[in-house]
């Protein structure tokens, strides 16, 4: 039995008692909701621009190190041992500085993660607050998030309260994005900016 099937069975077992007791339930597509919130779109754009700027800064530092390394190798045979050792130590220090900056910007809990929490988390919390209010007002026992879920195989559209969440938050769904509400494929989902790949040591 593969992992996905086990996961589906586990979720079915967990939700079974709720279904059996005729509890009210609904679903949302949080990716669809967020894509209809202009503040979220602006936050994502700002994050992307910041990540690109930091990545260019790091690439420039490594490019400078590569240039200095090539120059050093060309001149090394002319240098006395003490000066050669000094240049090697300087190159190591510059590379260490570049790698530390890379971790500072893109490492776990780094500047990009902090910026994402600053810009995106408040919007996400507003969405969750609206979902909670709808659940309380409508008497839903639970609300599932169907965006990108491998375990939610089918949901009747009448149980999708994504537009109600947007209405409660004061937003209107864009006509160009309404088709995304029922899509959970990875190709149609918006991708948050991730951490650029760390440059590996040679």
List keywords for this structure.
202 residues; single chain; disordered C terminus; 2 strands; 4% strand; 61% helix; 7 helices; mainly alpha; two-stranded parallel ribbon; disordered N terminus
- Number of folding domains? 1
What shape does the CA trace take? rod-shaped
Strand line-up in the sheet with most strands = 1-2
Please tell me how large the radius of gyration is. 25 Å
Largest beta-sheet characterization = 2 strands, parallel
Q: Count all strands and give the number.
A: 2
Alpha-carbon distance between the two ends: 42 Å
Order of helices and strands: HEHHHHHEH
Q: Share of helix among residues?
A: 55-70%
| Helix/strand/pairing category | mainly alpha
Q: Which percent range describes the beta-strand content?
A: under 5%
Round the mean pLDDT to the nearest integer and report it: 77
Low-confidence stretches: 1-13, 184-202
Please tally the helical runs, counting DSSP H or I stretches of 4 or more residues: 7
Describe the structure.
With 202 residues, this protein is mainly alpha-helical. The chain has one domain. The protein contains 7 helices and 2 strands; from the N terminus they run αβαααααβα. The chain has helices at residues 3-20, 30-35, 38-75, 81-106, 111-119, 121-138, 162-169; strands at residues 25-28, 142-145. It has a two-stranded parallel sheet. Residues 1-13 and 184-202 have low confidence and may be disordered.
